[in-house]
Each structure stands twice: as structure tokens, then as C-alpha cells.
Amino acid sequence: MKRTLLALSLGLLAVAGARADAPAPSVERGRYLIAVAGCNDCHTPRFAQLGAAIPESERFTGMAVGFSGPWGVSYPGNLRLRAAAVGEDEWLARVRAGGRPPMPWNALQAMTEADQRSVFRYLRALGPAGAPTPAALPPGAPIPTPHFVFVPQAPTAVGLAPGRP
Ligand code: HEC
Questions:
Q1: Spatial separation of the C-alpha atoms in residues 63 and 76, rounded to whole Å
Q2: In Å, how far from its chain's centre is CA 21?
Q3: CA distance 60 to 85
Q4: What is the pTM of this model?
Q5: Per-residue pLDDT at 18 exceeds 70
Q6: In this predicted structure, what is the pLDDT of residue 164?
Q7: Which residue, by CA, sits nearest to atom 36 of ligand 1?
Q8: Strand 72-74 versus strand 66-69 pairing type
């Protein structure tokens, strides 16, 4: 029992310590977090093909290519327009509310509040650009845009690699 209590208090101390050391919200921290969390991959057009060659000034304008699955169709939103349109507290509420796949909502929600604020401040600093992305669609609705289909496929036959005996 004593040991458990000791372990528990040490654990709590560690958590408190980590909080105290957490970096204060900043644009620079947001730039770093967004890079390591892979947010460009879906929210920056052609990032998957061109990567860092896309100038920062052209990033995060969202994609009008949808992700279709059992949830309907979701579109990676224009984060620059969103960050320009809402205040920081509204942004935090949006992050907490979550939404459809394949947006990694859990990753964003797992960040400390200071880090979520940093992500917002970075996107706000980029300034508004681009056009709004289409609204999400419910399952079964006609899909008027290009889209990826997220449906598991049956395995295909596995043959021997060409040239192997
Ligand atoms: C695998 C693709 C993908 C990645 C990677 C991704 N997103 Fe998203 N994101 C989406 C999709 C799709 C939506 C729309 C979700 C919905 O309809 O609920 C979205 C929505 C959002 C929204 C809500 C936008 C709005 O206007 O309501 C925010 C904020 C957001 N993403 C931030 C991020 C951040 C920050 C990262 C990096 C940690 C990230 N996303 C990484 C696909 C992605």
C-alpha cells in the first residue's frame, strides 16, 4: 500500500513537472509541432508529392479531394481560413469536439492545451489564403468532387516474384 502511494505521488510529481516545463504557446512552437505531426500531408495540396519544396506561404489551404468511407465524405479543411475566422478559445473547442476520419483527431487532442494554442497561432500567423473546402457529406450522398475511397479490399492472389525459380 505504502509503495503504491509512493509510486502514485511520484507519478503525480512527474506529471506536474512536465506541465511546468511545457513550452509557452508560440508561433515557432506551432511551426515545429505541425511539421512533426504531419499536418501538411492532408491539409496542403500536393504536399505528398512535393513535400518541403512547397513554400510555407502556400501551405494549409486544404484539399477539395474528399475521403470517402462509412462516415460519408470528409475534406481536409482550409486551416488558414479557419484560423483567421475564429478566436483561440473557439479553436480549442473545435479541436475538442473532434470529427470524421481520417483526420487524426486523437493526435491533436492529445497535445497539451499550450501546444494546441501554438498550432493555432502558427496557422493564424500564416494569414488567410485559398478557398474554402467543400462541406462534409453524409453516407450515401452523391459525391461531386474527386475523392479517395477508404474501403478495405479483399487480398489479391500472391504469386511468385517474376524471375524467381
Ligand atoms: C490523414 C489526413 C489528415 C491529416 C494528416 C491531418 N488532417 Fe486535419 N482534417 C482532415 C480531414 C479529412 C478533416 C475534416 C474532418 C471532419 O470532417 O470532421 C480535417 C479537419 C481538421 C480540422 C477542422 C477544420 C475545420 O475547419 O473545422 C482541423 C483544425 C485540423 N484538421 C487540423 C489538423 C492538424 C493540426 C493536423 C496535424 C496534427 C491535421 N489536421 C492532420 C484530414 C487530415
A1: 6
A2: 24
A3: 14
A4: 0.86
A5: no
A6: 58
A7: 39
A8: antiparallel
Q: Which atom of ligand 1 is nearest to the CA of 33?
A: 38
What is the 3-class SS of 104-154, one letter each residue? CHHHHHHCCHHHHHHHHHHHHHHCCCCCCCCCCECCCCCCCCCEEECCCCC
Look-up of cell digits 473557439: 90
User: Can you tell me the distance from the alpha carbon of 130 to that of 110, in angstroms, rounded to the nearest whole number?
Assistant: 28
Atom of ligand 1 nearest to the CA of 100: 18
User: Phi-psi bin for 101: left (phi > 0), alpha (psi -120 to 50), beta?
Assistant: beta
Q: C-alpha cell of 152? A: 478495405
Per-residue pLDDT tens for 82-127? 999 999 999 999 999 999 999 999 999 999 999 999 999 999 999 9
In the reported structure, the alpha carbon of residue 111 is separated from the centroid of ligand 1 by a whole-number distance in angstroms of 14
Q: Do residues 121 and 30 touch, judged by C-beta distance below 8 A?
A: yes
Share of the chain above pLDDT 90, in %: 77
Identify the residues whose C-beta falls under 6 Å from ligand 1: 37-39, 41-43, 67, 74-77, 79, 82, 94, 99-100, 102-104, 107-108, 119, 136
**Cβ atoms of 74 and 132 closer than 8 Å:** no
- CA nearest 62: which of 75, 48, 71, 72? 75
